[in-house]
Design a protein that fits this description.
The chain is of the alpha/beta class and 230 residues long. The protein has nine helices and ten strands. A hairpin with a 2-residue loop joins β6 and β7. The longest helix is centred in the C-terminal third of the chain and has 17 residues. Bound molecules: cytidine-5'-diphosphate (CDP). Cytidine-5'-diphosphate binds next to α2, α4 and α8.
Length: 230
């Protein structure tokens, strides 16, 4: 069967990674969570005192970029690849609010984007990949066979993320999560380099009222159509 490249972009906490993982597993494709890479670079910057809520040593981070080694390693128990930063599994550490609060600042840095986009293109050079992020259909793979743009109201997204964080035992409030979602929406859509916008040829899906199953079926149908027309 013809293999295709699927780009899934959209606002934070729209459930992109959940559906991207499901589709990739169903098809036996590689799943790449590009947001995990920006989160891992942010974690490195926090650990090395290059960023905090009131300071960002952008030059310091840019000159340290060569020291940052990112790797996705497949975890068969979980069924997806986990993020490793300089040899250490950081899958849990990159999902904290501390990282969420700073990641969009780091991701607005062109030098950071250049390094990560290079890695993303390398991971997707052979078709048979589902990648999710903010600029996958516009910048990373402008020729992707299928582009999806996911949206939902900020309140719905914040509630989903809040439940996720609570479930894993993080001490957060809904208000704090909502504020973070709104701030990231703002920074991600207004940054100069590769802002979050819907690619002209992307199919928009508002999943505010879709169950996980309905969402999966909708996207799988689009994938099948894209395969047929390739
Ligand atoms: O999972 P969630 O929706 O919270 O976000 P994510 O996909 O983990 O991405 C975290 C942040 O990384 C985003 O808010 C963006 O600032 C940045 N990002 C980006 O700039 N470009 C991408 N392709 C992916 C993520």
């Amino acid at each position: 069967m013809t293999k295709i490249t699927v780009a899934i972009d959209g606002f934070s906490s729209t459930g992109k990674s959940t559906v991207a993982k499901q589709i990739a597993n169903y098809l036996g494709y590689v799943y790449v969570d590009s947001g995990a890479m920006y989160r891992a670079v942010t974690l490195y910057a926090i650990q090395n005192q290059l960023i905090s809520s009131d300071h960002f040593d952008k030059k310091g981070l840019i000159s340290a970029l060569n020291e940052i080694d990112l790797l996705f390693k497949f975890n068969p128990k979980k069924g997806f690849a986990e993020m490793y930063l300089n040899g250490k599994n950081v899958e849990k550490a990159i999902r904290t609010m501390a990282v969420s609060n700073l990641v969009s600042k780091v991701a607005a840095t062109p030098e950071v984007r250049k390094k990560l986009v290079q890695y993303q293109r390398h991971m997707g050079e052979h078709a048979g990949v589902v990648m999710d992020g903010r600029d996958i259909g516009t910048v990373v793979f402008p020729n992707a066979d299928l582009k999806i743009f996911m949206t939902a109201s900020a309140e719905t997204r914040a509630m989903r993320r809040y439940n996720e964080l609570k479930e894993r035992g993080d001490d957060v409030s809904y208000e704090e999560v909502l504020k973070n979602v709104q701030e990231r929406d703002h920074i991600d859509t207004t940054r100069k380099d590769s802002p979050l916008i819907k690619a002209e040829d992307a199919i928009e899906i508002d999943n505010s009222d879709l169950s996980l199953e309905e969402q999966f079926d909708t996207i799988l149908n689009l994938v099948k159509k894209a395969m047929e027309s390739k």
